[in-house]
Amino acid sequence: MAKLIYSMITSLDGYAEAAEGDLGHGAEDEEVHTFIGDRFRLVGTYLYGRRMYETMVFWETADQAPEAPPFVVEFARDWQAAQKVVYSSTLESVSSARTRLERTFDAEAVRRLKDESEHDLTIDGPTLAAQAIRAGLVDEYVLFTTTSVVGGGKRFFPEGVRLDLELVEQRAFASGLIYAYYRTR
């Protein structure tokens, strides 16, 4: 059985999406990018909401840019090799290969996908992840925390949810970004 991993870049005050602007600095450098690529290389399926998919579909062609550094090319090819499921009631179509569109999030279908998959899955985006967390589907939480306080937005963890997590691994990068990996107890 595969694990479902929720991973996001977050602000220091816990937001996965800022109300205004971005989440700050720390995730753009080669060291961090290479680490993220290595950490998620074996993911078999990415679960996205519309907005996160529209951000990540960049990787469908990122390896074709002549100026793309090797770590970008490698991440793009890993992303392209994985299956993608996009949950959206408004998106008319998807533009990347190995991608299917679902109109609604179905917790039981995701549970079956975990049971049948040989490789781990990730769920990305705080709104979609909140549904999976409330359904008890998320096995691991990976936070990449920036050095910025943004004051508002969408929180990494949904309101009203209590979890007991075990810290498995952590790392600080030269950029100030902090990686923390937790699993459910």
Automatic annotation (TrEMBL):
GO terms for biological process: riboflavin biosynthetic process. Residues 3-178 form the Bacterial bifunctional deaminase-reductase C-terminal domain. It comes from Kineosporia babensis. GO terms for molecular function: 5-amino-6-(5-phosphoribosylamino)uracil reductase activity. InterPro entries: DHFR-like_dom_sf, RibDG_C, Riboflavin_Biosynth_HTPR. This is Dihydrofolate reductase family protein.
